[in-house]
C-alpha cells in the first residue's frame, strides 16, 4: 500500500467478495485535507423515488412558501431533515395526460415519471416511452463508478400483458428506461442487491455464497485478512469509520438472514407472488433497499439510483398502520372522509420511510458536509389526487444540496403547468450532464440555487 495515500477504489477482497469502502482520510491525503475538502469536490449523487396512486394533497401542501414552511401532517416525519428538503409545487407532467389516448392514467403516471414522454398505448411488445432522466445521467457519468446505475423496487411485477386500460404492464412496473423501448429491470430481492454490491458473480463467487449460506458465515469473514491489514495501515479516525461501516454492512447481512428464515409468504389473490427471502414486513423491505442505496452511494459504487415504493396502481394493503383496504381502491375516494384519512396515513407511512433514508444520508460525513449534502433526491408521484387522476400540481420533494448547488429547506411554488422535465434538466446540469433539453422541457427551473 502507498503510505501517503489510499486509492478511492480500494476494496476488501476475499474469496467471492469485493467490499468497496467509504471515503477515508487516507484517500484524501490525510484528515486535514479530508475535513477541508469542499462539497463540490465530492461526487454528486442523484436518486429518484416513486410512490403510486397520488397523494392526499390537503395534508401535503404547505400553506406558506419560502424558508420556514409549515410541515403538513403527511410531511411531518421529515421534521429532523426539514432544512435539507424543499417542497416543489406547480410541476406538471403533460405527457401523463390522455392526450387522445383515453383511460390509463396509473400506467402513464409511472412511465412518464422520469421520462416526460407520452407512452404508446399498447399491451403488446411494441411498447414505446422515452429514455429516463436517471439513464441520461448514467450514460454520461456511469463509467466513473462500478455500477452505472441501480434500479430498486419494493413490489413485484411483470413487463408483459395488459395492466391498465390497454397499457402494457411494462409501463406500470418501471420508471427507469434505458431507451424508448427498454425498461431497466427492477431488483426487488434485497439479497441479490447485497450480493451485487459486495459479492463476486464469478463461479468462485457463487460457490463462496453457497458456502456462506450453508455454514451461516458472514461475507466479512472472507475479507477479514484484508480488513485487518487496512486497519493497521490507516489512522485512528479511519479505523473508527471502518468499524462503523463494516458494522453497518454486517447489520444488513443479519437482517437479510432473518428475512430468509421467515415462513413462505401468503399473498392476496389479487397480488403477484413475492419471492422467499423478502421480508414479510413492507417497512423492513423498504428500509433494507434504501440502506443498500446508502451504502452504494457511500462507497461510490454508483451515483445514480431509482426506487419504486410500489408499482403504479398498486392495491397493497397496509395492515402495519391498520389500513386493510387496498391502496388503489382507496385512491378512488370520491371525497369520502374515511378513505381520505386512510390515504393520508399511507402517504405519511411512505414519508416515514423516505425520512429514514434521508436521515441515514445525513448521518454520514463526507467532505465538509454529509452524504445528503452531496446528493439530489427527488420523491414524488406521477399523479396529484388519485381520484381526479390529474397530472398537474404534482407532489414533489427535492432533498439534498447537490454539492452546494441547491438552496434547501423551502417551499417553492412554480407557475401552473411548469414542466416537471424542467426540474430534471436542472438536475442533469448540476451533474455536469449538459444536455440542451429533456423530454418536454422548456428550460431549467428558476429559484433552485
Number of helices: 13
Side-by-side strand order of the widest sheet: 4-16-5-15-14-3-11-6
End-to-end C-alpha gap: 41 Å
Could you tell me the strand content as a percent range? 5-15%
CATH C-level category of the largest domain = Alpha Beta
Major β-sheet profile: 8 strands, mixed
**Rounded average pLDDT:** 92
Say how many strands there are: 16
- Sequence stretches where pLDDT stays below 50 over 5 or more residues: 30-34
Structure description:
The protein is of the alpha/beta class and 449 residues long. It has two domains: 1-21 and 193-277, no CATH class; 38-188 and 282-430, Alkaline Phosphatase, subunit A (3-Layer(aba) Sandwich), CATH 3.40.720. The chain has helices spanning 31-36, 105-111, 133-141, 169-172, 190-198, 203-215, 219-222, 224-233, 236-260, 282-298, 327-331, 337-362, 420-430, and strands at 11-14, 17-20, 45-50, 66-67, 85-92, 150-153, 162-164, 167-168, 177-179, 182-183, 304-308, 365-366, 369-370, 375-380, 396-399, 410-419. The strands form five sheets. The protein has an eight-stranded mixed β-sheet, with helices on both faces. The radius of gyration is 22 Å and the shape is globular. It starts with 10 loop residues before the first strand and ends in a 19-residue tail after the last helix. Mean pLDDT is 92; it is low at 30-34.
Amino acid at each position: 500500500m502507498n503510505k501517503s495515500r489510499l486509492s478511492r477504489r480500494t476494496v476488501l477482497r476475499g474469496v467471492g467478495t469485493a467490499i468497496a469502502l467509504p471515503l477515508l482520510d487516507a484517500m484524501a491525503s490525510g484528515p486535514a485535507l479530508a475535513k477541508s475538502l469542499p462539497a463540490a469536490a465530492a461526487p454528486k449523487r442523484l436518486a429518484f423515488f416513486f410512490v403510486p396512486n397520488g397523494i392526499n394533497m390537503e395534508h401535503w401542501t404547505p400553506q406558506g412558501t419560502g424558508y420556514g414552511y409549515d410541515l403538513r401532517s403527511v410531511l411531518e416525519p421529515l421534521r429532523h431533515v426539514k432544512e435539507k428538503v424543499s417542497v416543489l409545487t406547480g410541476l406538471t407532467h403533460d405527457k401523463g395526460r390522455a392526450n387522445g389516448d383515453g383511460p390509463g392514467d396509473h400506467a402513464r403516471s409511472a412511465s412518464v415519471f422520469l421520462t416526460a414522454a407520452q407512452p404508446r398505448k399498447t399491451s403488446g411488445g411494441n411498447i414505446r416511452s422515452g429514455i429516463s432522466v436517471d439513464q441520461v445521467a448514467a450514460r454520461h457519468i456511469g463509467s466513473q463508478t462500478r455500477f452505472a446505475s441501480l434500479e430498486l423496487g419494493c413490489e413485484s411485477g411483470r413487463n408483459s400483458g395488459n395492466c391498465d386500460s390497454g397499457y402494457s404492464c411494462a409501463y406500470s412496473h418501471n420508471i427507469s428506461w434505458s431507451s424508448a423501448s427498454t425498461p431497466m429491470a427492477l431488483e426487488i430481492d434485497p439479497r441479490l442487491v447485497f450480493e451485487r454490491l459486495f459479492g463476486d458473480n464469478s463461479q468462485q463467487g457463487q460457490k463462496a455464497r453457497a458456502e456462506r449460506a450453508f455454514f451461516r458465515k458472514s461475507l466479512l469473514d472472507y475479507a477479514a485478512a484484508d480488513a485487518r491489514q487496512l486497519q493497521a495501515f490507516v489512522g485512528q479516525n479511519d479505523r473508527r469509520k471502518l468499524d462503523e461501516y463494516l458494522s453497518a454492512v454486517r447489520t444488513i447481512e443479519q437482517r437479510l438472514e432473518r428475512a430468509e428464515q421467515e415462513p413462505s409468504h401468503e399473498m392476496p389473490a389479487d397480488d403477484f407472488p413475492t419471492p422467499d427471502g423478502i421480508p414479510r414486513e413492507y417497512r423492513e423491505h423498504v428500509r433494507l433497499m434504501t440502506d443498500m442505496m446508502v451504502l452504494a452511494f457511500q462507497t461510490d459504487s454508483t451515483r445514480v439510483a431509482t426506487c419504486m415504493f410500489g408499482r403504479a396502481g398498486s392495491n397493497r394493503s397496509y395492515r402495519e398502520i391498520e389500513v386493510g383496504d387496498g391502496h388503489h381502491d382507496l385512491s378512488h375516494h370520491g371525497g369520502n372522509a374515511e378513505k381520505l384519512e386512510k390515504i393520508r396515513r399511507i402517504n405519511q407511512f411512505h414519508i416515514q420511510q423516505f425520512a429514514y433514508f434521508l436521515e441515514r444520508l445525513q448521518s454520514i460525513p463526507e467532505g465538509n458536509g454529509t452524504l445528503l449534502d452531496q446528493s439530489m433526491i427527488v420523491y414524488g408521484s406521477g399523479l396529484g389526487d388519485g381520484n381526479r387522476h390529474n397530472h398537474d400540481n404534482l407532489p414533489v420533494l427535492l432533498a439534498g444540496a447537490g454539492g452546494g448547488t441547491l438552496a434547501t429547506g423551502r417551499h417553492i411554488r412554480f407557475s401552473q403547468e411548469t414542466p416537471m422535465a424542467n426540474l430534471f434538466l436542472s438536475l442533469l446540469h448540476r451533474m455536469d450532464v449538459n444536455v440542451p433539453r429533456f423530454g418536454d422541457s422548456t428550460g431549467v427551473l428558476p429559484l433552485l440555487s
